[in-house]
Amino acid sequence: MSDDGETRIRFAEEADAGVIARIHMTSRSATMPYLPPQKRNHEQVTRWVQDVLLKHCRTWVAVRDAEIVGYAALDGDLLEHLYLRPDVRRTGIGTLLLDEVRRHSRGGVSLHVFQQNTEARAFYERHGFTVLDTNDGDRNMENLPDMTLRWTPRLP
Fold first, then answer.
1. Under the GO molecular function aspect, what terms does this record hold (predicted)?
2. In what helix (H) or strand (E) does residue 100 lie, and over which residues does it extend?
3. What is the pLDDT at residue 114?
């Protein structure tokens, strides 16, 4: 029986690594064409997901109709990654993942985003993130100008 497009969020498992890697690679190439071509193949990115991402970050996946369609990875209070399969963008799944991250980050969440990534910047700004700083790119491996955004929960 289909769940009619209902999406649930759960913790990522090692068995999810290959799908997470595919989402990571396809999302980056679809949404950030200004990035240099990827040098790592699917197998190498899958190993990175297993050996780095899942071991050092709290990682969640979004599951719709039994398929993983997105993921978010949190390292402390730093949102390291939030990627969706390109065909499910603008369907609320990114918001579900971000809400899960924020539920686990009572003190707030920071993230880095490329200045050129105007769609991601607009998404985070709609969700209450504000710009903390901008950078010329010397702190990321792509050497592209980026910015730090921060969300701090409102006190009751």
1. acyltransferase activity
2. helix 93-103
3. 93
> Across-strand partners of 61?
10, 71
CATH classification code of 7-151: 3.40.630.30
Average pLDDT across the chain, whole number: 91
Beta-carbon contacts of 58 under 8 Å, excluding residues fewer than 6 positions away, are 11, 73, 74, 75, 104
Domain locations along the chain: 7-151
